[in-house]
Amino acid sequence: MDIVKSLGHPEELFNLFKxxxxxxxxxxxxxxxxxxxxxxxxxxxxxxxxSRSFAAVIQALDGELRHAVCIFYLVLRALDTVExxxxxxxxxxxxxLNDFHTYLYQADWxxxxxxxxxxxxxxxxxxxxxxxAGLVGIGLSQLFSASQLEDPEVGRDTELANSMGLxxxxxxIIRDYLEDIQVARAFWPQEAWSQFAxxxxxxxxxxxxxxxxxxxxxxxxxxxRHVPDVISYLARLRxxxxxxxxxxxxxxxxxxxxxxxxxxxxxxxxVKIRKGQAVxxxxxxxxxxxxxSIMAQYSQKMLxxxxxxxxxxxxxxxxxxxxxxxxxxxxxxxxxxxxxxPIYLSAAMLIAALSWQYLSTGQPEGNTDMQGH
Length: 373
Known about the structure:
Layout: H1 2-5, H2 10-20, H3 38-50, H4 52-57, H5 63-83, H6 90-98, H7 100-103, H8 122-146, H9 152-156, H10 158-175, H11 177-182, H12 190-193, H13 209-224, H14 227-236, H15 240-260, H16 275-284, H17 288-303, H18 313-326, H19 342-360
Helix pairs in contact: 2-16, 2-19, 3-5, 5-8, 8-10, 10-13, 10-14, 10-15, 13-18, 14-17, 15-17, 17-18
């Protein structure tokens, strides 16, 4: 139960209760489905089936922009299904990609022959992430500028926009190692894992734990190099709804990377941030100072866990120090409950737990899993 997982984190309990009472609407207003056309409601239905995370954060956007982003995302996800599958013969794939825009007008068109593929080298890994996530970041940025909610420079700077997408995608791939291996998918780049094992699945064996952690830390370090670009990108945003939409997944990502870094559980089960932790990040990440503070906190946590014997130690320390320098002016976010004595804190947690249980029986649970795959 989410309330139990957050018992040792009083601020999370406070925010879980606040979220359940409607606090989520301050950053994610509820969509008015009744006012939408039938076709637009269908788009949101498909969006929820495709990505819970994106369906949640899209509600942070203003007006018509949220509809444009919804459709944009669905089209790219469908196109990616074809592009990403290397088992489709080249002579069949190219015509499908060239004609894909025509399929959008065919209500009964579908494609059910997709299979995953290995990403062979780190360079190809970056290229793959660019096409499936970096281009999404670039396209979204151009939509932000076209809507005039953001300055033209946001849409023009494709390098920063690309990094926004790559950071999220690499984090998802790192986190989902075991889940992907169990269904015969392989996303970790061969150039990385081949330094530590003969086969990617070998990293899940207890006998290979040291090597597995070395590989994991190498990939986390590679993902972290995008964080300075993420900070630069977010600092340019001026519209509150666009900022929330962009910032929330990014702080979730660095929290997830921090949880994964040097963590054997990546190879043994599922590593996810607590729901209370996710809700707290969601409610805090509404301004640049708070985002920098969050980035500083999680980079500091990783800094304390860097092993003396890790092969990526120097690179990891270097990028973490760069992140620290970019966030050095920010102080730690204050806890709303640090002033409470233990007895009052225990009472507050008990009341929150009972209230949560009561509320949970009367309304559906909110979705805060911001990291989709």
